[in-house]
């Protein structure tokens, strides 16, 4: 089977300037997933050149059966008029050159690819991973002006999508409904929820010195305000006034200058450790190093970092946005942007809560293991291929058979 599969998303994907590409969530796992649909995979997105030595923080993507189409960054007001038409022509040309299109939404490039696939008549499916409205509404005052319009645009775009995979069980389906075939499948990749992690976590909680600072952590883009890390910093400053000690570790891509300045202004720089990006294989050890993971987002789909933290039996606090309430108990949630709500939740944390949440998260994470999700995803791929009169690859059949055995 020689089908060429196109994955369309905004990205960015990292490169070293010598033809080698690097990623974390956009990496080998995603490439291998799409090889169930065809024999060649192309990522069509924006790219970013790595600084010297920065590639050590990313995983290199295996170049076999893999290609990249670099789309110019047309999203800013400064570049829109100059680059939008060029990007649109490139997207349409690339869609025409491929047999199957997988568009991840919401994204500008993914939306272009969906419209091009419809015009040309290419088989396509959509992965719907986040809420457009929440992203714009929580970005800045300008975002609030267009949030409802952008949501209606996305609703209209996905309404008649023939095949769609939502990352949530309920939230995104309710806000961006489609009349097509659909399933729910997180983009998370966990192999298991090991009993050893739960045993070690429980032993650690039992022996932990209550006078030591509680270590919090977040994995999210550092340069995007709607990820909410600033709210945690403000909460830590308030807790310090009450002589409560917390340490906050931040992992993620992008400039952290805004967060560093805020920590300085709040007088808590000594309690904040900005780590930057980590390889996916290293992130799990980061979760293990925490007393409590916190996801303070104001916009999400179903955050993979929450599931990953749960998979190593780490207790989790999160905002009550999007799919997060599908993952956590109500007593572990706070209103997005509510600094006092975060303070209240952190003050309530004790060893009993940590023990109960470690056990509960371990069990809940079993619903999101690679095997459980892959079985559902591959069955959906098979249905998609059959509906479009496309041959089913030997790889897909073999993987389905292995999952059933």
Largest sheet: 7 strands, parallel
Distance between the termini: 25 Å
Integer-rounded radius of gyration: 21 Å
* Structural class by sheet pairing and helices: alpha/beta
From the spread of the alpha carbons, the general shape counts as globular
Question: Residue share in helices?
Answer: 40-55%
How do the strands line up in the largest sheet? 7-4-1-8-9-10-11
Uncertain segments = none
The multimeric state of the shown protein is single chain
Strand share of the residues? Answer: 15-25%
* Strand segment tally: 17
Total count of helical runs of at least 4 residues? 15
Helix-strand blueprint:
Layout: E1 4-8, E2 13-15, E3 21-23, H1 28-34, E4 40-45, E5 47-49, E6 59-60, E7 66-70, H2 77-96, E8 100-105, H3 108-120, E9 124-128, H4 132-137, H5 141-158, E10 163-166, H6 171-175, E11 181-184, H7 195-207, E12 214-219, H8 229-241, E13 246-251, H9 257-266, E14 272-276, H10 280-288, E15 292-295, H11 304-311, E16 316-319, E17 333-334, H12 339-348, H13 351-365, H14 370-387, H15 394-404
Parallel strand pairs: 1-4, 1-8, 2-5, 4-7, 8-9, 9-10, 10-11, 12-13, 12-15, 13-14, 15-16, 16-17
Antiparallel strand pairs: 2-3, 3-6
Give a summary of the structure in a few sentences.
This protein has 405 residues and is of the alpha/beta class. The protein is built from 15 helices and 17 strands.
Give a verbal description of the structure.
The protein has 405 residues and is α/β, with parallel strands linked by helices. 43% of the residues lie in helices and 18% in strands. It contains 15 helices and 17 strands. It has a seven-stranded parallel β-sheet with strand order 7-4-1-8-9-10-11, sandwiched between helices. It has a six-stranded parallel β-sheet with strand order 14-13-12-15-16-17, sandwiched between helices. Helix 11 links the parallel strand 15 and strand 16 (316-319). The longest helix has 20 residues, at 77-96.
């Amino acid at each position: 089977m020689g089908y060429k599969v196109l994955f369309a998303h905004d990205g960015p994907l990292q490169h070293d300037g010598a033809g080698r590409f690097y990623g974390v969530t956009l990496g080998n796992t995603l490439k291998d997933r799409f090889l169930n649909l065809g024999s060649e995979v192309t990522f069509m997105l924006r790219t970013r050149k790595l600084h010297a030595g920065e590639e050590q923080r990313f995983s290199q993507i295996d170049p076999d059966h893999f290609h990249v189409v670099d789309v110019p960054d047309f999203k800013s007001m400064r570049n829109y008029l100059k680059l939008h038409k060029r990007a649109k022509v490139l997207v349409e040309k690339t869609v025409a050159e491929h047999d199957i299109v997988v568009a991840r939404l919401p994204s500008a490039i993914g939306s272009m690819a969906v419209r091009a696939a419809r015009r040309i008549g290419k088989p396509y499916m959509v992965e719907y991973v986040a809420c457009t409205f929440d992203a714009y509404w929580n970005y800045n005052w300008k975002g609030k002006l267009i949030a409802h319009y952008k949501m209606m645009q996305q609703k209209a775009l996905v309404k008649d999508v023939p095949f769609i995979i939502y990352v949530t069980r309920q939230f995104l389906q309710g806000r961006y409904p489609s009349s097509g075939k659909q399933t729910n499948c997180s983009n998370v990749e966990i192999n298991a929820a090991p009993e050893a992690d739960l045993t070690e976590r429980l032993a650690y909680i039992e022996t932990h010195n209550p006078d030591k600072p509680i270590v919090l952590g977040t994995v999210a883009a550092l340069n995007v305000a709607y990820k909410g890390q600033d709210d945690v910093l403000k909460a830590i400053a308030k807790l310090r006034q009450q002589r409560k000690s917390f340490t906050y570790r931040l992992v993620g891509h992008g400039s952290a200058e805004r967060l560093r300045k805020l920590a300085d202004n709040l007088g808590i720089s000594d309690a904040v450790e900005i780590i930057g990006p980590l390889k996916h294989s290293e992130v799990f050890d980061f979760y293990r190093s925490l007393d409590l993971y916190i996801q303070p987002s104001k916009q999400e789909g179903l955050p993979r970092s929450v599931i990953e933290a749960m998979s190593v039996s780490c207790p989790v606090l999160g905002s009550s946005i999007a799919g997060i309430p599908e993952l956590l108990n109500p007593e572990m949630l706070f209103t997005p942007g509510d600094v006092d709500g975060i303070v209240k939740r952190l003050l309530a944390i004790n060893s009993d809560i940590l023990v109960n949440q470690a056990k509960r998260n371990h069990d809940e994470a079993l619903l999101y293991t690679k095997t459980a999700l892959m079985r559902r995803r591959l069955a959906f791929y098979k249905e998609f291929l059959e509906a479009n009169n496309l041959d089913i690859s030997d790889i897909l059949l073999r993987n389905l058979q292995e999952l059933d055995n």
